[in-house]
Amino acid sequence: MILPIYTYGNAVLRKQTEDITVDYPELNALITNMYETMYHAEGVGLAAPQVGLSIRLLVIDLAPFKEDDPELGAFKTVMINPVILERSAEEVSAEEGCLSIPGVHEMVMRALKIKIKYQDTEFIEHIEEFEGYKARVVQHEYDHLEGHLFTDRVTPIRRQLLKSRLTSIVKGKASCSYKIKAA
Fold this sequence. Notes:
This protein is of the alpha+beta class.
């Protein structure tokens, strides 16, 4: 089932999320719906707050990059209750966008490498290190679980320049090809 994506201005995008347990109701169905929603919106990552839930859950599938980079194309994951343990001091800048902020793309600095602890769909704990684009996408989705958006990470001047576009999104004037829930 395709879920509406909550857009900029919705309070759920700014809330701290809560850990979930193995008895979370209909978790597998939720994960399936999140993937379906993400694919329908042509995204590569989606966090639970983006579908209105304040829980620590995110999904990623970098398959759209398989022709350019087979290693990226093979990266598909579900992370439950993730915690970033380490971030490299080295940062890189790259353009980011977000399904919750349609039509906005900005340059964002992120750690080049991260170490993260999370649980998979069987609630088995993993500790993994990611680098480059994988690390960027994981950090972007992880930010959603912390109540942050990529626009929080742009320079103050760029944020000021984005103000009218963000206000339009809050007012429900976003133009996109997928179902949204405006503030």
